[in-house]
Every structure is written in structure tokens, then in C-alpha cells.
Design a protein that fits this description.
The structure is a homodimer.
Chain A (H helix, E strand, L loop, with lengths): L6 H7 L3 H15 L1 H15 L4 E4 L4 E7 L7 E7 L7 E5 L2 E10 L4 E3 L5 H12 L3 E8 L4 E6 H12 L5 E3 H7 L1 E2 L10 H10 L4
Parallel strand pairs in A: 5-7
Antiparallel strand pairs in A: 1-4, 2-3, 4-5, 6-9, 7-8, 8-10
EC number (chains A, B): 3.1.21.10
Cofactor (chains A, B): Mg(2+)
InterPro entries (chains A, B): Resolv_RecU, Restrct_endonuc-II-like, tRNA_endonuc-like_dom_sf
């Protein structure tokens, strides 16, 4: 699945402007696969009876709805809202799981602007009540996906509030996070990490 | 907050048709308060550090989006989707909670058509994985709200599939459910029932 470094880049630059735009778009879509792969992994977990984890729908503020006779209501005007919690939650081995997935095309860090303050607050609350909360972070270009527990995230988050660095660096994530293995049925097999780190002890 | 029996009813019947329509509409809105009251109770639980329970956004299938320059994306065509899980979930005392809220103007039963088969399937999965799943049912006219655990719901659900009655009768809910007390800060104080029935044992 990995391309030799730069091969993709040189392919793009040989295309005309318009095609290049389209191809870059396709590349952007490839960058959007983390969420899709987690949803697929969750489906596998669900069907195999391992866990019940769902993605929350994106909240939408509906302004105008039409009710045509004999057919479904049509939303005519609505706006995306900022989610006040995380993207995914559910239950695994009796534990409440709650996490957010982020991916970046950066090679060296994930900017903290990707994470909202109310999401961090929510994650803290989850752990205070006995749940498990974490980030799944993908470095698209490296094709590496990490599970970063809440604790190291909080360290960087609080340092940022005191004027510290405004991103999670790749070496930091590599040191404090766990590389999520690729599995054929669960492409983002994060539950294997949950087992090692949270359920069977460790860290 | 409780009116003498029938007083509300007689007030409506003395109104003209048109007014009556409007008033009934307002009455219908009053019927929509259960969800709102649960959301408010959840806010109270959240702020007081008791539990973290959120309503999931209604899933919407977006067909067309406009991206005006310098302003937020506008959804121009979208449709409501059937939720595949329940309305509410979260964590309380380390336990995963997952439930659905239903209200009815019927006096004698809640029709099972109010509950989708995939929701029942979801609720069963939650309990299989060690979570707590239940219904909150309000009889609007009686002004009574019950917590009905999954188990009695399943009994009626499975009998229905074999040709049994297609509703949860009021006497059945009264017998197998728990009347949720009204509290000033948590108007639907279902966590008090969770404590009695699930956390501190009982039933």
C-alpha cells in the first residue's frame, strides 16, 4: 500500500492544471479514509460481537423544512454545527469508550487546532467517570496510525495554554502513543491496543 | 404541576375549531417535552459531575450543499434518516448507559411501532457487553414517566413476533417499570432509578 517516497508527487506535477486539481482532490479524499476505515472496523467489531461502537451523526441545525404531501420531509436550509463531544463512542468489555479521530498530511505534527477545547473537556469528564478516552491520529503520508491516550494529550494541551507548542509532534506521538496495527477485517484495529494498554494493564 | 383530572380536556372542548386546532398543537408541543426535559436533566448531571450523558444528533442524509464565499456551508437538500441506535448514551459510575425516550398521549399503552427492531437489537447488544439499556416512557395525559428495563421490553417484543399484543400496556409498564420522580433540577431524574435498580442491586 505504500508508495516509494515522492512517486505520487511527481505523478501529479506531470498533469495539466485541471487534471492536477482533480487528482489532488482524489488525494484529499484518500486523506478522508481514516474515519471510513474506523466505521468499517466498528462494523466488523459489531458483527463479530466484539464491541458496540458507533460514529455519532454530525449535528445539523435545521432552519427550514418542507413537508410535501405523500413524501418524506425535505430539509431546505440547514447548517453544520460544531460537535460538543467526540466522534465515536460505545462499549467494549463493559468499558465505555469515547474517542476522536484526526488525520493530517503534515509529516511532523498534528496541530492542536484540530481539536476543540470542549472536546478535551468532554474527554476528561469521560475518564473521570471511569471511561476510556483517546485520540486516533493518522499521519497520512507516513501511512501510520496511532492511538494516543488522553493523559499525554492533556500534558501538551495544558502546556499550550501556558504558551507552549501548539501541536502534537510526531516524535511525541510515537513515544507516548501506540501504533495501531493494520488488520484485514479491522483496518484500524484499535481494540487490540485497548486490550494491551487499558484492559490487560500495561503502560 | 398536576391538573385535576379532565380540567385540561374540558378547556379545549369549549374552544372553536380553529382555536382548538392551535391549542391542540400547543398541547402536542407539550407532548414533546420529555426529550427536552431529559436533555435538561443531562445538563444538570453534567454540570454537577454526576454523569456524562448526551443526546445523539438526528442523522441527516445531505444531498446538496452550497459553499458561499466567506460564509458557512448551507445545506440545501437533506433528509432525515432513521437512527440505527438509541437517542441517548453516556457514562454513569463507570457504567455505559444507553436508552431511548418515548412518550404517548394514549392512556392505556405505548404501541410497539414507536420502537424500531434495530433499536431493540442495539439495546440487546449493549447489555450483552455489560452496559445498561432501558426505555423512558411518558404517559403525557397521566403525567407519569417510567423507566422500563430492557428485560420486560424483550418479553413483550418477542411475544409480539409470535403474534402477541403489539403494545406495552400501561399496567405492564406500571408493574415492570419504575416511576421516575420529578426533581426540580433533574425533571426526569432517571439516575435515581438507575442507582436503585442497577447499581445498588434491587429489582
Amino acid at each position: 500500500m505504500k508508495y516509494p517516497k515522492g512517486s505520487r508527487q511527481s505523478h501529479y506535477t506531470s498533469l495539466s492544471n485541471k487534471q492536477s486539481y482533480k487528482t489532488n482532490d482524489a488525494f484529499a479524499n484518500r486523506g478522508m479514509t481514516l474515519e471510513k476505515e474506523i466505521v468499517e472496523s466498528n462494523n466488523y467489531y459489531l458483527e463479530s460481537g466484539k464491541a458496540v461502537i458507533h460514529k455519532k451523526p454530525t449535528p445539523v441545525q435545521v432552519v427550514q423544512v418542507d413537508y410535501p404531501k405523500r413524501s418524506a420531509a425535505v430539509i431546505k436550509e440547514a447548517y453544520y454545527q460544531k460537535p460538543s463531544t467526540t466522534d465515536f463512542n460505545g462499549i467494549y468489555k463493559g468499558k465505555h469508550l469515547d474517542f476522536e479521530a484526526k488525520e493530517t498530511k503534515n509529516k511532523q505534527s498534528l496541530p492542536l487546532t484540530n481539536i476543540h477545547p470542549h472536546q478535551v473537556k468532554h474527554m476528561k469528564r469521560i475518564e473521570q467517570h471511569g471511561g476510556i478516552s483517546f485520540l486516533i491520529i493518522r499521519f497520512t503520508i507516513k501511512d501510520e496510525t496511532y492511538l494516543l491516550p488522553l493523559e499525554p494529550l492533556l500534558v501538551v494541551w495544558e502546556q499550550q495554554e501556558l504558551g507552549g507548542r501548539k501541536s502534537l509532534s510526531y516524535p511525541f506521538i510515537k513515544e507516548h502513543g501506540y501504533l495501531i496495527p493494520f488488520q484485514l477485517q479491522a483496518k484500524v484495529d484499535y481494540l487490540s491496543i485497548i486490550d494491551d494498554v487499558y484492559i490487560n494493564g500495561g503502560d
